[in-house]
Amino acid sequence: MAATKIGDIRAKTPDELNTMLLDLRKEQFNLRFQRATGQLEALSRIKQVRRDIARVKTIIGERAQSAAPKA
């Protein structure tokens, strides 16, 4: 599975972003668990998921910052 493109993430609504973030964190937990038990074959997927989480959190932060009142 390829990394999520930033354009695809930007097109999502805030609710979709929060759902996506939750799903990615669950996947990250499962991947870490598989690695610890020796069942993980695609080690590169851990890196992809971590970066996708960062992308989603960046977009959420950008939107929160732009929505905040200017001081």
From TrEMBL:
Q: Name one GO biological process term.
A: translation
The cellular component terms of Gene Ontology attached to this UniProt record, alphabetical and capped at eight, are: cytosolic large ribosomal subunit
Q: Which Pfam families match?
A: Ribosomal_L29
**Quick check: keyword Ribosomal protein in the entry?**
yes
Instruction: Tell me which InterPro entries the record gives.
Output: Ribosomal_protein_uL29 (IPR050063), Ribosomal_uL29 (IPR001854), Ribosomal_uL29_sf (IPR036049)
Q: Which residues cross the membrane?
A: none
GO MF annotation: an example:
structural constituent of ribosome
- Protein keywords: Ribonucleoprotein, Ribosomal protein
Q: Do you know which CDD domains this protein is assigned to?
A: Ribosomal_L29_HIP (cd00427)
- Family that this chain belongs to: Belongs to the universal ribosomal protein uL29 family.
Protein name in the entry: Large ribosomal subunit protein uL29
The organism's taxonomic lineage, starting at the top: Bacteria, Pseudomonadati, Pseudomonadota, Alphaproteobacteria, Acetobacterales
In the UniProt record, the gene name given for this protein reads rpmC
